Every structure is written in C-alpha cells, then in structure tokens.
Amino acid sequence: MNAHAPNMPVAFQPDRENTRLLRDAFGRFATGVTVVTTQGADGPVGITANSFSSVSLDPPLVLWAPSKTSRRYPYFAEADHYAIHVLGADQADLCMGFAKNAFALQHIEHERNIEGVPVLANCLARFECKRVAGYDGGDHMIILGEVLRAEMRDGDALAFFAGKYGEFAQT
Asked: What pTM, to 2 d.p., does this model score?
C-alpha cells in the first residue's frame, strides 16, 4: 500500500493483491450491527453481521450476507428460518460475545419463536424471517428472507465504522 497524506483520496483498482484497501473502503460506510440466529444441528447458533438491509415493504423482505469462509456459514447457508437482531448501543458486549463464539446462545438468556429459532429480547429491532432465496455473492452468500414477525424499541444504535464500534444517538 502506498503511503498517502491524511484526508487525501486513495484511488485503486480492486484486485487480489489489495483486498485490505477494498475492505477499508467498504468500512467507510457506517452501518448498524446485527446478530443473526438460527437453530443448528449442534444447538442454537449466532453470528454478528453488518451486511443487513431492508429490500421491500410489500412483500416484507430483508437481506444479509454471511461469509462463505466463516465456520458458521454452513448453519446459515441452508437455514429455512432465522432471526436478525439489530443491536442497541447498550448491547456491545452481546455483539462481541457472538463475534467470538458461534454458540454464545448457550450462555445467554433467550427464547424460541414458533419455528424454533432462538430469539433475543430487548434489541432495537428483531426480524423473524423465512428464507426466500440464496444468491452467490463472491466470497459471501446473499440470503433473502421474508419477514414473518418484527418488533422494535427506542434507543441508541450500536454502529460500526472503519473497523471500530461506536454508537449513533437519537436526538
């Protein structure tokens, strides 16, 4: 990587030799933080993800994209049902727990929804989903889901920007 002056743009053409630059550029888009859960053969599984987006209101659709290289990928690649939990600023520890341990739910209080998916309480929002489709997305899979049930609360959001966690406060 070439050294560059602070606040000066760095132009590059993405390739296999500069994936760190591309990752850093992607990181300039501030996102919320989610934990996605499902029921796996080994028990309840969770993964942190910031690759979440709403897609459609009618029908109610969302997407997210797990990495194919993640050890948790097999659990989510074929899951028929899953839940996406949007985390509040007060839930950074929860986020880090799932970032370190796929089976963190074994040590966290949770309930199960009608489909048997583990769900967390008191998140900023929760979307209980049925998988509609999966699409190849390079080193990720794009998973499209129909929202069957949702809930939300007020609060400040846990945010991710340039590789760091922070918060976005309501005004």
From this structure: 0.89
Structural domains in the chain, CATH included, are 33-161 (2.30.110.10)
The partner residues of 43 in beta bridges, in order of sequence, read: 40
- Alpha helices (runs of H) in the chain, residue ranges in sequence order: 19-26, 73-77, 92-100
9-31 per-position pLDDT tens digit: 888 888 888 888 888 887 777 88
Whole-angstrom Cα distance, residue 30 to residue 37? 22
DSSP one-letter code for 26: H
3-state secondary structure labels for all residues of 121-155: CCCCEEEEEEEEEEEEECCEEEEEEEEEEEEECCC
Find the mean pLDDT for residues 126-149: 97
Give the strand order in the sheet containing 81-86: 43-49, 34-40, 81-86, 125-137, 140-152, 61-64, 52-56
- On the question of pLDDT at 1 being above 50, the answer is no
